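Reopening: structure tokens for the tryptophan complex, inputs below.
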Amino acid sequence: MLEKREHWGSSIGFIFAAAGSAIGLGNIWKFPYIAGQNGGGAFVLIYLACIVVVGMPIMLCEMTLGRATQKNPVGAFKALSPNTSHLANLIGVSIIFSGLAMLCFKQFGWSAVLCAVGLLVMFYGWITVGILCIVTPFAILSYYCVVGGWTIGYIYKSFAQEINVGSVAEAGGIFGAFIGNTGLMIGLFLIFLLFSSLIVWGGVRNGIERWSKILMPLLFILLLVIMLRGLSLPGARRGVAFFLKPDFTKLSAEAILIALGHAFFTLSLGMGAMITYSSYISREQNIFLSSLAVVFLDTLVAIFAGLAIFSTVFAMGFNPDAGPSLVFKVLPAVFSSIPLGWLWAGLFFLLLSVAALTSSVSLLEVAVSYFIDERKWSRHKAVLICTLGIVVTGLLSAVSITDWHRIEWLHDWLVKAFNVQSGNFFETIDNLSSNWFLPLGGLGISLFVGWIWGTRKAVKEIRYGSSNFADVHLIALLAGLKDDPSHNDERYHVLTLASLWGIFIRFVAPVAITIAFLWMNIK
Ligand code: TRP
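Re-run output (same inputs, fresh job):
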């Protein structure tokens, strides 16, 4: 008995949903603060390079995998991977040995993780990458929903004029008291998670697509309003210069890694969110154009959000390098000093929660689709159980997101097992997922499509619905000779978008990610 898979109602519905996934806290909350911490313009440039070199090719990889298999990430790898080979055994065994070697350094936690991964690789081969894709959303959602809860709290605080403050220090005090209120944190976290679950509960077309089509236009309007307000303030120009003028002396090696990790995070890559969403499209969809549209919209929103925030922050004479609390401490102080500040602040935090909501929906849908496809659960059962899982991990975050002191035992255990010292709960999970799980997942996905499934089959899949794109002769196009008869000869079609893409996913993206990993460890 073959159940028919749900599909998006229209192409534009898919693009809205995928852009809704990509555009989130990453664009409006995280991107401005990491740009602020890493020196502004130069960082933005590196980030854009990562989007083009690594993000765009892998976006197309994920969309191709999803549409070709019509499955969740685990199902997709299962459908396309060859039987586990000697190579998988060899790699699995070497991972296990390196895990055992870690024992000599008393790295018990890492040793256990490596042995487990080694076993997975031995028995499941490439499907291990799919499994990683199902684990990561639980890690990300655990803190994503907590921050989502903050944004809801701040919508209320803005309209109630509770964050009408005179200084950043005062706003900091309010924020500190806010996140110190554990009961409130848990409540807001649960409300935010409940909204996300309800949308996923409604299904692909009646839940995710319908809400994306309402919330995304709302988000664009809010963002435009706030950006224009910021840019029209006297003195906004210094903010714009900080954000757009590259000063490479301020760029550190670490910033490059952060930019790469953020490219994955902001485009929702590396954990199969795009595989899952494009498993609900049909072959008429032009995935080449769709992937470009999603990347473009996501980048546009990040740039607009940066302009909105830095123009306002500089116009009011504040510092851009406050870190994760930039939006929650500096902005309230900034807004309080412009007329009708509470209104702008309220709209801003509304914008932030809308963006966060469509993203957390996509994170949840990845796990849900796995249980529906592979375990044959009903959608409602899958949503219920995944939500309960996130409640458990999210509660840990909610009570300890900025500091470990409420779950000291877990911290002690982590320090003992993994030898990690630095950072609070929030930084630890964020760093682990953005800078490790996502790039690792992305590496697996691009290697798999480039070398195992093969670019030939992948390009064949891409051609459905986008043949005129994949095979455009780039040089002819740039030279204005696109329809010149001599260039229509098959033999001349060498440098096409499709072949360029093949080179990127086989060589450029994997090498870039590997270098980033090595760098991170040598440092
Ligand atoms: N891209 C979202 C943001 O910028 C977050 C997100 C949603 C995500 N789904 C994802 C990140 C999947 C990684 C993987 O906030």
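The pocket of tryptophan is lined by residues 21-22, 24-27, 140, 265-266, 268, 271, 273, 359, 362-363, 438 (CB under 6 Å). Residues 314 and 396 are 36 Å apart (CA to CA). Marking as resolved unless the reporter disagrees.
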